[in-house]
Model the fold of this input.
Amino acid sequence: QQQVKQSPQSLIVQKGGISIINCAYENTAFDYFPWYQQFPGKGPALLIAIRPDVSEKKEGRFTISFNKSAKQFSLHIMDSQPGDSATYFCAASVQTGANNLFFGTGTRLTVIP
Amino acid sequence: DAGVTQSPTHLIKTRGQQVTLRCSPKSGHDTVSWYQQALGQGPQFIFQYYEEEERQRGNFPDRFSGHQFPNYSSELNVNALLLGDSALYLCASSLKGLKEQYFGPGTRLTVT
Done:
């Protein structure tokens, strides 16, 4: 059972465009929602994260939008660059106990020049 | 400031064998979590260690076991390897009480 559902599976965007990746969850106990970027042969790198008490968080060209009532959150990459080409994972963890992450299935982003 | 390190980088084992993977957490971190990432999938939580004890476990069989040492480094052991155990094994470190987890580069395990 996939606790965090991610879409699309793959995405092709032109340089300078906006990349949008969406995630949805069911468990209302989730209280931390990070995004990770993974290049081939590397481990996931923490990109940006949000908690449910805010609706948006921006760091440079990366923005998370969070809709608590819809139980959805998304990553927006503005001015996408070829160097952004990687696989992106959304994740979530619960309030109590170990902070183990439940990951989405990933989105392979390709930014074409 | 050293990040999370893992060894070895790659490993090839035969079905039925046993394997040990190693992880050193980011400087200042005291909690280590292990994840399995199958090809084309997101990482799946195996277990987490804090204060040298297993604190939480994901849906993995007892063939998967671990250990944490007083210096916070950790080992993942897998017994009776199956072909389906072939995956990238990731170690993530964090500071107890904080949510942020930082991953190492992983160990690519191939079971033939």
Q: What stands out?
A: The mean pLDDT of chain B is 95. The interface with chain A takes residues 4, 33, 35, 40-45, 48, 50, 55-56, 58, 90, 92, 94, 98-106 of chain B (CB under 8 Å).
